[in-house]
Amino acid sequence: MSVTGDDGNLDYPSHARAIQSVAPSIGVELTPIGVRDASEIERGIDTFARGSNGGLIVTASTGAQLHRDLIITLAARHRLPGVYYSRNFVMDGGLVSYGLDRVDQYRRAAGYVDRILKGQKAADLPVQAPTKYDLVLNLKTAKTLGLTVPPGLLVAADEVIE
User: Fold this and answer.
1) In a structure prediction context, what are the per-residue pLDDT tens digits for the chain, which is 162 residues long?
2) Which of 44, 107, 120, 154 has the most Cβ atoms closer than 10 angstroms to its Cβ?
3) Sign of torsion over alpha carbons 111, 65, 86, 31
4) How far is CA 56 from the centre of its chain?
5) Which domains does the chain have, with CATH numbers?
6) Dihedral (C-alpha) 90, 92, 95, 96: value to the nearest 10 degrees?
7) What is the pTM of this model?
8) Quick one: 6 exposed, middle or buried, by C-beta within 10 A (0-12, 13-18, 19+)?
């Protein structure tokens, strides 16, 4: 299993640290791959793909977003299932994403703007973590990878791309 991040260092993003802390308890070994540039990504995924039973977890980073097409292409070439942080990856051919619902985030931000325009100080408003997440599956990609998606996962998905 691989986790990508801006610098390939699992200490960088907090979500990668969370993945790292859980991995041993479920018998998963992590191999970080940096996403600073295309050659680093290609080398990292090519090397990682030589192993068996691997998959990608692509965490949120500028590098991952900038090189989205390359990451998806390499995952397909090496038949690696990938879990991504944004539905954009799945719309472009990635397998599955689980991430915050951006529309909900914008709605909540609009509520903050309303409160500020009515006189509340921005510094007095509480910081809010996302509360709504979306699960998006690409069945075409699953079929290409030779994967059978469990019915329960299909039912749980917020969106299924066929």
Assistant:
1) 565 654 544 444 667 778 888 888 988 888 888 888 999 999 999 999 998 889 999 988 888 999 999 999 999 999 999 999 999 999 999 999 999 888 898 999 999 899 999 999 999 999 888 889 999 999 999 999 999 999 999 999 999 999
2) 44
3) negative
4) 9
5) 2-99+133-161 (3.40.50.2300)
6) -10
7) 0.82
8) middle
- Tell me the C-alpha distance between 66 and 128, whole Å: 27
Q: What is the CA radius of gyration of the chain?
A: 18
No. of helices (H) and no. of strands (E), the chain: 8, 7
3-state secondary structure of 98: strand
Name the token pair of 13. 């993003």
